Input
Amino acid sequence: MAQSNVLARYRKWLVWALLVGIVAYGGLAMWSDSKKVGHELSVFNWAFFVPVILLTLANYALRCIKWIYLLGRLNAQISNRNAIRIFLAGLAMTISPAKAGELLKPYLVSKRSNVSMATATSALVAERLTDIIAIVCLTALSLAAIGGAKSGNHEIQLAIIGGCVLIGLLILAHERSSLALIALCGKIPVVGRIAPKLEELYRGMRSCLAPVPFLITTLLSVVAWAFECFGYYYVFKAMGIDASLAMATFIYATGTVVGGLLAIFPGGVGPAEGSMIGLCKSMLGLSASKAMTSALMVRLATLWLGVLIGAFVLLRMSDLLEDTDLEQLEQTGTA
Output
């Protein structure tokens, strides 16, 4: 099928995401008193919203540089222009169920370069993994800065997530063990047919996450996500809320993690905001309306801005989408 298949599927995802957003935000607004939320928006200092947007754009820019760098590690013969367009279009796919639509990125790379879908997917996995590590690092640093009773019992949850990431990295680093696990998968009925692709994916990830590339991409991720945390700090300033940068970082990073873990909701809409609202109330002592407004504004400047940019790029890349079939993509990703 042609370009229309991709756009038709994306429109369905967009409508679904908007419906979920309307229900989630509407429910949260009613719970926190919609009149009070309206008042908070009316007194919001929009001058502070400009740096929030600029910091989000800086986040996208650094993550795009990381994407191009990872494709370079795979020796993917694709122009920077097309790599940038594919990255930006991927922002629109964050609203797809469980972010499955983000497979469009490696799929388009494989169609427009010399690398396979499995190899290109390793760049996506490495991109996401370093994002997770960066957010965990920011959460840990901000939690250490907050300290005391305000930190609550979040150290345990953070340690569990960090431990899982560390175990994954150790397995990835030990080639013999990893290949043995893949070989074991090859003996399992049905699953065995994807063993060759898993090995291809693994070798690509080893290239993307070798020591030096790992340090470079993780550093880029930490700075990129710190920008968005800084943006949340400016949202608080726009509302006249006295919150430290460490507190803003912890609340935003935690909300991002929760939204990511519950990715079955498009863009993490609902769980991410709910987590931020809960933390704003418990750690900053904010009213429900103030907490709701702050979460709404930062998500508008991060998630929904990205969806808007991604949709705009997606609608203007007919040359890359030609003959692209999302049903075929889903089959390719699971075959």
In short: The mean pLDDT is 84.
